[in-house]
Amino acid sequence: MTRSPRTLRLLPALALLACRDAPATPGGGTPTGFAQSYGVWTPGPRDDCTAAIHNAYSVVGPDGKLYPTWHPPVDPATGCSFGHDHGRDPRGSALYAMVGSIPFGYANEQLDVYDPANPRHEDHFGHKVEWENGVRLHFGSAAADAMFDIRCDVLVKLHQGTHSKDAFTNNLHELAYHVLCSDGAELHITLLAAIGDPGQFTRSCDGATEVVVGPATPANSPAGGGRRLIPDRACVDQDILVPLGQRSDFGTLHESWQTANSIRREDGHGLAFFDPYFQVSLPSRFYDPASATLVGRPIDVCYEVTPSGARAQGGACDESTSGGTITGVTFDDPRSVFDGVRRVVDVNSNTIDNAAGPAVWYTDPFGKHGHTQPFPGSVRQFIARIDNTRGGLNASGPTLGGNRDYGSPRVHAPN
User: pTM of the predicted model, to two decimals?
Assistant: First the structure.
């Protein structure tokens, strides 16, 4: 098969192969097939890149199939726009030579083998990459920080779609998590993270109300730790549609996906625990139970006026509509700032209890039932042979991405 020059391949960890298990399974070569996630994007009316140009940004995964991977919002060779972003270019990460390009949808693809009756496929837009080199972990006090002084290279990718109704009910979202720390902690994990309970989410503006929406896909989605905080119509009515003379609080349009992940052996012993949080400001959706689609659009709220005269005042609405002088801005218009490009990742703790090894485990797509040998639908995980439990002392932070905006003049929802 002829390969495009844009096609990216997973790179072997050459420096590590000679002394211990490689953290990643190298890919490359001619693909043996196509993943379900490959080729699903097609250009919308505001995009001028072709599907063929988009599909050229691909990588051969550990299973030999071709997967989509990171690409910039604008193709540098042609100048055409894809209209969406995938976060930070992973090639700048110190871990890239070890990990290579991330195959989007690999854990979902393995679920097709592990449990073919209950698939979970996600759209292309939601795959978001973030990384930072040499970040310092925090342990709650200056004294603890000085005692441990642990620094890490971090490269993560979560599927965090914030434009559709998917996350209202579906709690399974693909997470690729790579971290290498100065205390010897090292994780290279891919799984379907179960974030909170299926069928519901937590209202973001009070952080407490559980909003039950309906059945999840797949129907047997496991409950997980953490939670998905998402704004709903109640948040909009409370904080954005305000009386004249007040300013709207657009901070209510904030999503925080708080993960709590574990990798476990077949006997249930926890080998690794990590709990990054993924946050998005100004998504292009909120939950609206009165809508036939269940999706409300913040940009539409900019044009609403209640019977009492309450309306959106200032902030993101003014920015999107030039202070209300531009009418008819739709949710997929690049002029709308409700596009989900403002994101941060809180790294938090990386706890490993694997001193006896081995470093390579094979788990189901949810990170459970770990074995030392692969099995149908298993995912290869790398966990350092250490015990850094520290008597329960966990790290918090740091935050990645707060100083970056991944938008461009032509990025727009869905994104």
Answer: 0.93
